[in-house]
Amino acid sequence: MSRSVPGSDWHPASWQKLDAAQQPNYPDAADLDRAIGDLSRLPPIVTSWEVDALKAHIAKAQRGEAFVLQGGDCAESFDYCTSESIVAKLKILLQMSLVMLYGLKKPVVRIGRMAGQYAKPRSADIETRGEQALPSYRGDLVNRSPFTPADRIPDPQLILRGYERAALTLNFVRSLIDGGFADLHHPEYWDLDWVGHSKMAEKYRQIVSSISTSLDFLEHASGRAFHQTQKADIYAAHEGLHLGYEQAQTRYLERRKQWYNLTTHFPWIGMRTANVDGAHVEYFRGIANPIGVKIGAGTSRTQLQDLIRVLNPNNEPGRLTLIHRFGAKTIEEGLPDLIRAVRETGAPVLWVCDPMHGNTESTADGTKTRRFGNITDELESAFRIHDEMGSYLGGVHLELTGENVTECTGGARGLTDGDLARAYKSMVDPRLNYEQAMEIAMMIAGQSRGKGPRPQDLI
Ligand code: PEP
Ligand code: CO
Hints:
alpha/beta; TIM Barrel; two-stranded antiparallel sheet; 13 helices; globular; disordered N terminus; disordered C terminus; binds phosphoenolpyruvate; binds cobalt (II) ion
């Protein structure tokens, strides 16, 4: 086959020759093959021109001309594929992006961890409770979370159910956006009571009121509503973990002479599967999508340089995003060396900070949480370190929800460990709630060193 993919030995299934970490053990291989075959006959969820448009936006962010906001659930769940939950997620992403656009004075590229974020890596294959040992819950794409033998057996039909829900989610998101979704500058639409609890209350009030004034100006000047002047694109992303799922919708587009993963715009490689000799890197090297790789404490400079060489051999702009997730305490020690290692390669990358995954801890009663102060500390360190090293931090990757959950402690309302039980809904990692996520957006807006905003900055 002489196709213009890196290495003529690549094929959507060539990863199968290698050791694939974090894959479920299905009881019946023929059942799995049937489900993957069924999936491959369904239409794609995204198109190659959308994928290429995102790659161009990421290339802009690499040049310092845009900022990426990537956010959503740690693990989407089938039960929360509901109108309310999708609307809430869209609302928080749009509002955050508006605040960030205002502060940073650059276009903000919105990427949801959504419409396919259904498969999770786990630290152990087996979970033991008392006398009973069962397969770990690996996300709704694989098995179910209740601790019973029937729920925990990996079920290939869930692959199809997940794909259908991913399509429903993105379909609804697209319709909401095309319809204008909501009047973003209407005061009732912003839930801003929390601002009064923040030490930064005055500054935050001023940000919100300036945004409102700017939007009014823009709408009066153009004679059209904001959503008619600006198309609020939202792109989809998920961890490309379940390689059968990714492979099934990987298509060769004659027109482009390239393979595309059409389950999502932006798949990323998780920290646990970023081994340069492993099956995930093999799969990812052959697709044309813009891709991310999680890196952090434990990623060596040579490993990172090898990943860049294999995943972006032609130094294509927009292709590679490095999402670093160290933890507030280790970023200082680990990040500068990786920035230097990348610089030596001369390759274009987008640097994105994930201040969530290095800051997970357990409370005394074993509840997984993250402290808001650690999240903001890591983010502030990331901005400062990149700045000091003449590098550009071009995005943030967050686990968040538009709902009023209590999963991370701290924030303007000072949630404590005791508050967590009140509304803890995540089945995997703790997410920022609406208010905490808005507070992060305000903090990022405050990173801007520019002078006061002008209404035309929003155009
Ligand atoms: C995640 O993003 O949910 C995740 C598992 O992250 P990481 O690969 O960085 O641990
Ligand atoms: Co997570």
